[in-house]
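>> received
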Amino acid sequence: MSVKKAVVLAAGYGTRLRPFTCATPKPLLPVWGESMLARVVRQLRAWGVEEIVVNCHHLHEQIEAWCAANGCRASCEPEILGTGGALNPLREWIGTDDFYLVNGDIVFEGFDGFTDLKAFAQDDVIGLAVVTKEGPRTIEVEPSRNIVTCWRSPDPGYEGTFTYCGIALLKASILDYVQPQGASSIVQAYERATMDGRFVLAVEPKNLLWTDAGTIPRYLEVNAEGATNAFDALPQVSAALEELHLTGPVSFLGARGSNRCFFKVGDAVIVVYDDAARGENARYAAHAKWLASKGVAVPKVLAARPDLKMLVLENAGSTDLAAYAHRVGTLAAYKPVVETLAAFGKLGDATDLPELEPAFGPALWRQEQDLFKEFALGRRYGRACPEGVEKDFAKMAEVLEKEPRALVHRDFQSSNILWKNGKMRLIDFQGMRRGPALYDLASLLYDPYVKLSDVDRKALAALYARESGLAQTHVAEALPFAAAQRLVQALGAYGRLASVGQPGFARFILPALENLLAAADEAELDALGGLAEELIAIEMKHAHTHAAHVHGRAKD
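>> returned
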């Protein structure tokens, strides 16, 4: 028996691989120099498959064009139908034929198709599914016949559980169990078939190498594990290399919390960004050019491709303000930064301001505070916001609303101030807007990434007062309110980022809470200070417990 038909599931929203999928649908992203879809289709044809249908949704025109050029048929879904519903438009095409059903965003080697089809021919078998002990292991398999007995195990990862690899050989009769209209999952069809005495058998290939490359961390990890310089095949990176005639290995610098990924080649940094979720990312190039025209030290824009959601910047170096201060001393490093900040703020009066983010005001203060309440208080600590803290929040907003307006960077922290060859560059200014001048100073002097002494903090605040023209007493009185607001925002952001796959930000929660306590005490925000003390105690206890656990494992 030779299976001649296959359906490749390639319809999705592209959400998990943004920003790469802003310009390219996920199945067409490269792995080791070849798109995931091309790899799957090549392997299917090696198994003898002749007719292949690829369903599509996000950026469907690109997949349709690829299919037309590569002898496949595209099945466009204006509304996503799911892994089961995708089969409904294909019922006539499938007919009575067996067919493969394969996910379009997997990478696998060492599997040459289902070679032993005796079990598949049994009347009570409706399909074969490739499984592995790698991954989340959410399905349960009965060992005597390898029947999949549960597709959503309540005990994932335990003995007898496996991961479904997204590769199945199915009889046409599976269509009897697919919901005939609307969106549905193929797993629902498998479960209905099982209830009717028709089973899917699990097949665990001995030499299978498999991964789901459908998330940013895993996708980048897979490429890094593969061919040398695999990143140069990414559409955005490839376009940058071609446009600027860049040569040399491409290295991944990392992802940031603002829906961007960074790559380095030579003395250039390629930025791939998402401007759907974060509209300010699209304004980075224009802001950089405007700031440079005003004498602000920012990286030079080497290329900008809004169509690909990509821009190329000169490499501003990897030495941030904290590292530079460690080398030359705190005041020596911070003095030019504070002077630059004062000049930056005065640009708020310019008559040719570029398009900015909405100005700071009551709605934005509430938004930052709500971020803290949801992701820090709620999700991390399981707490509601005390009434006294709500009153302190209102006081903070009241004080900041009375502050003089300036151009605000919004994230003026040590990690966004880089030094290279003795020259400073500001980065991450795309969120700039008008607001209280002291918000940026608070971001700098109460930065959770750097521990400043009270003496240095006061000296730098006094320097800012002189450079900006604000009264020193006013800066001293109002700065703690700005710091409390900024730290509340930062704690909410750390909690949110930790909840979406960037747990590294959690290490800044304790220093942020300590700075919040200091700011609250200075501003006489007693309820907020009391809350900060309670949360510090929780974090300290957690750190102590974790350290004891690690020490115990080391002794074992």
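>> The chain is about 40% helix and 20% strand.
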